Amino acid sequence: MKSNYKPLGNYIKQIKKKNTDGSVSVLKGIRINKEFMESVANIQGTDLSRYRVVEKYQFAYNPMHVGRDEILPISVLLEDEPIIVSPAYVVFEILDHNELDPEYLMMWCRRSEFDRNVWFTTDSSVRGGFSWESLCELELPIPSIEKQREIVAEYNTIVNRIKLNETLNQKLEDTAQALYKHWFVDKKNTDNENILLSDLVFQSKETIHPAKCKFDILEHYSIPNYDEKGLPSFEKTKTIRSHKYKVVSNSILLSKLNPRFPRVWNIYGIANENAVCSTEFLVFVPKTIDLFGFIYFVLKSNESIEYLTSRATGTSNSHQRIRPSEILDMPIPCFSKEEVLSFSLKTLWMLKRIRLNLKEIVKLNELKDLILSKMSKVETKTVEA
């Protein structure tokens, strides 16, 4: 480690407070993106008095499986109300917030170098655990508290902008889905006729094999990326082994995996030349761009989800798939051309705005990563901790 780095153990202490009186009932886990999440565990009949309490500005981390996942699931609680976490978690707090800011430390924990160092120091057990002692031995630069808070403020400005864009996108999506339901679900189709999805789209099957690709970096639309943030990742071509579908302009990506959990990606507008997607997605291109909005929200509708789920096959609920032919043969209620075009025109600007917001989020995430990467170069205090 660099000589101006300080051991984290000088600034933190472990907390072992248990929920002995049962006063805290909100149980949370930690995602791999280092944020607290509502626990999916069934706690019916569970004795919650054994669980560890986490209070505002305290940290918790899951010490297990770090060696396997190469990431330390760690987060800091910024809400006022306390939560509880698994008894297996480690909880700690900073001794003096005027020496080390909790949000600054959390930023350090989000760095890829932090996870790499943690992974290097995991134990040799099957689970690859990460001990409290190992955490205390990690070192980091500690600039003045004023500089720490300046860095945190700069970082939070970007984070808040990302959250604003995400909120705007959700509102636009909800508005358009409500409009679709009002126009095409609640309204009875008096013609009693259906058309097929294949009448409205064609499937693009152009493939790219990374080994023969001219790009060093690929914009990768994958299942994990969709599930995490709905954003593509930018990956070195040489790290991608299997062939992919090329993502074409003005297309809609639909996952054939587990249709009861719909994954529909809006690629409205010009797609980047280096954009690819997992072969778990089907790339649909509307036969006319005027139908883009209608087709997109058809695929996201509850009716389509139910139809596709009923035709999925597989040995387990987590690995069910639907054949492309079944998707293309999906019946769609036939409405007048005027209604469909009118709806598409009303929603296309929303989809365009959503797409532009997502592109901005990608750029903002790059700025976030840049701030995190520069943390190792900040001027540190000369006084020894």
Automatic annotation (TrEMBL):
Output the InterPro entries linked to this UniProt entry. Restrct_endonuc_typeI_TRD (IPR000055), Restrct_endonuc_typeI_TRD_sf (IPR044946), Type-I_RS_S_subunit (IPR052021)
Domain named Type I restriction modification DNA specificity: residues: 75-173
Which terms does the record give in the GO molecular function aspect? Answer: DNA binding
Q: Which GO terms describe its biological process?
A: DNA restriction-modification system
Coiled-coil portions: none
Per UniProt, which keywords does this protein have? DNA-binding, Restriction system
Instruction: Extract the SUPFAM superfamilies matched here.
Output: DNA methylase specificity domain (SSF116734)
Protein family (similarity comment):
Belongs to the type-I restriction system S methylase family.
What name does the UniProt record give this protein? Answer: Type I restriction enzyme S subunit
Can you name the source organism?
Answer: Olleya aquimaris
Query: Which taxonomic lineage is given here?
Result: Bacteria, Pseudomonadati, Bacteroidota, Flavobacteriia, Flavobacteriales
